[in-house]
Amino acid sequence: MQLLQVGPTFPKTPFLISKSSPNGGVVGILSSKKLSLLYDTNHSLASSHRHERCKWASLNQSISSSISTKAASVDAGAPAISPVTAEKDVLAALSEIIDPDFGTDIVSCGFVKDMNIDESMGEVSFRLELTTPACPVKDMFEEKANEVVAKLPWVKNVNVTMSAQPAKPVFAEQVPMGLRTISNIVAVSSCKGGVGKSTVAVNLAFTLAGMGARVGIFDADVYGPSLPTMVSPENRLLEMNPEKRTIIPVDYLGVKLVSFGFAGEGRAIMRGPMVSGVINQLLTTAEWGELDYLVIDMPPGTGDIHLTLCQVVPLSAAVIVTTPQKLSFIDVAKGVRMFSKLKVPCIAVVENMCHFDADGKRHYPFGRGSGSQVVEQFGIPHLFDLPIRPTLSASGDSGIPEVVADPQGEVSKTFQELGVCVVQQCAKIRQQVSTAVTYDKSIKAIRVKVPDSDDEFLLHPATVRRNDRSAQSVDEWTGEQKLKYNDVPEDIEPEDIRPMGNYAVSIDWPDGFCQIAPYDQLQTIERLVDVPQPAPV
Ligand code: ADP
């Protein structure tokens, strides 16, 4: 078995879909669309901004053209092989490639699609469908897949195509309509204002876009929206689609933006729901289209607005922004606790304005260590430091995010590492959530792996069904048990189990009942200890 290494550096290819041409060259598919978008935008921009954007776009283009597909060496004396053996050979070879995030081989991960083998000609083609177009190890997957299949003695030519799964949440049915084509929603949060939360949110979003992902930013700060000063789209007003009653986001360099600051005074969308519900309305009625990542710039604090937002929106993960002062630790702890209650995993802490360099020395004006204290105490695995940089402040005010203005600078490198972390953690969370509760037919037991914990146990399906706490099973007012023990057959089996965010699963039973079972509740149910063994075949 071979383990792929993930480098800490920025992924080399921002555009995912590549196809080898007959002569072994590479044709970008996704890239051309996205690049033309970038260039179209560039052409219409003020000349002072043009240079910066072109730099960003051309960096992406040069990176994308570095993708290469290896052709297998021709072996004239290749042995004859049956179609079944040929497919087995290819799958066995591909299963040597391990996804470093999931710890599972790419065949078991279900990445291999559209396998086409002409064993008489020694030709093999297949597609690797990854979970995100911004996968930081996609180049390695492509290269390794070519290499391991080309090594098979009967193979003369390998054609690997890379693609990404269509954007959708893991648990689409429970999500408001407008958000059903978004794969991951990442909250960028801080407990105090002025710590650089919006700066981090915007630069993270443009970093993810630079990695090849389809990205949106939602600025959830109704009272002090900062997104409008940090970007410079040509059209700065949200449009209404009167027929569909939806809001069309503002577009800047291919990233979709929605902010109260783009609503424009006196516009229809501001009148009715001015006070309550405005955030939810903006967020859920926006025409986001397919997005791999929606970055939400949360308002500062941990108040009601956060709870409402977290209830409406299925947040995949949160990134916490803080400054190094000792007092910040207390605030950050509050934020981590809030997300933990809402079952939203905090995947990274960004400690902003940590240091600056002057007179050949590094200075830490606010002291050191509150970020690492958060990481240690709350077990958040990733900490990123950002320096105090006049350019970061200036780029925020000039309307060009730092990662666009200076894509190869020190700050952009930190954002690239943060971007890789977000991509990897979101993929892991999706995987964990979708495999957290499964039905093992061979032992007639429901297997529960609690997300973010090592706890794994088995439950008897009938016991799970009997423990339903919904109004159909328990009287809401009196607490009287309506569902009787014998109402549930001992041998009942679930028909389907689907995750609902990070907190619950929905289970379909053969009698048509759909049970919502929170993990907290599953953890309290009597577990199967004497696990029935699978019947001998
Ligand atoms: P928040 O969203 O937490 O209120 P902002 O991102 O709006 O904070 O940042 C507040 C101000 O600080 C902005 O003017 C921004 O440009 C500036 N700023 C943020 N981070 C840095 C940094 N690392 N170096 C210099 N200025 C920064």
UniProtKB/TrEMBL annotation:
Domain Gamma-butyrobetaine hydroxylase-like N-terminal: 451-514
Signal peptide feature range: none
Positions of the MIP18 family-like domain: 87-160
Cofactor names: [4Fe-4S] cluster
A GO term, aspect molecular function: 4 iron, 4 sulfur cluster binding
InterPro entries: FSCA_dom_sf, GBBH-like_N, GBBH-like_N_sf, MIP18-like, Mrp-like_CS, Mrp/NBP35_ATP-bd, NUBPL-like, P-loop_NTPase
Protein name: Fe-S cluster assembly factor HCF101, chloroplastic
Natural source organism: Aquilegia coerulea (Rocky mountain columbine)
Organism classification: Eukaryota, Viridiplantae, Streptophyta, Embryophyta, Tracheophyta
